[in-house]
Amino acid sequence: MSVVLDLVDVSVVRGAGKRLIDGVSWRVEEGERWAVLGPNGAGKSTLLSVAAARLFPTSGMVDILDEILGAVDVFELRPRIGVTSGALANQIPHSETVLNVVVTAAYAVTGRWREQYDPDDERRARELMGQWGVGELADRTFGSLSDGERKRALIARALMTDPELMILDEPGAGMDIGGREDLVERLTELARDPYAPTTVLVTHHLEELPQGLTHLMLLNRGRVVAAGPIQDVLTSENLSATYETPLKLTEVDGRYTAFKDAS
Ligand SMILES: Nc1ncnc2c1ncn2[C@@H]1O[C@H](COP(=O)(O)OP(=O)(O)OP(=O)(O)O)[C@@H](O)[C@H]1O
């Protein structure tokens, strides 16, 4: 199996020596489905920005899809990585149609820049929009969509280039329970699809973990608390250490939640 991500002793340091991530080593192999959990400010988004070739670390080695960050043209590497994040959503003009939001990924831009697209690109965009439940919304403006619809349109966009690595930063943020459950169902299908790209998902909520995840990283204060196969890492003890509060993990039919352990 080939290695998709290999981070060795990676740190990102900002003003006054603040370590956003601190000596992180992480190996992701082809076909794995990871989630990254950790409290606010733990460094999850920073870590994902490094993994998506959007941010250079202060120190350490980063290998993404067999290319070393710093020795590769990131503009050639980035189209191989599908990303959804709130930051990306904010860059998209609200007046853009949903079809354009999705199809422009093939041209690595966020606004329409050509009047005509390749018919194959448009066909693929419409197919992905259908799969992610926004097929009927192709001609609506991005700004008119609900939070949940926007998130699903962005996932369709991220898949547009047939990426080898897919990075989902809080795809369920801002959704109501129905929207979340719909998203988890679709993410479960994606996780179980053997042809889907290697995936890394960041979330704040255990309830958003789709079934079919294979691995989990727990991050706190920029450091890895635990990382590895989900069945080994997802424990009350590890969650308590990560969130610095006593937590009791509960599992129901392959879905998870955690509450403060009062015992
Ligand atoms: N330029 C910067 N200078 C100093 N600190 C920064 C800078 N950018 C981010 N930080 C801090 O780095 C820490 C990690 O931020 P990051 O966004 O990676 O965390 P996160 O785990 O994604 O948080 P959240 O769950 O709240 O989104 C936070 O404490 C943040 O305030």
UniProtKB/TrEMBL annotation:
Q: Which GO terms describe its molecular function?
A: ATP binding; ATP hydrolysis activity
Q: Where is the ABC transporter domain?
A: 5-246
Q: Which UniProt keywords are present, listed alphabetically?
A: ATP-binding, Nucleotide-binding
Name of the featured protein:
ABC transporter ATP-binding protein
Give one Pfam family: ABC_tran
State if Transcription is listed as a keyword: no
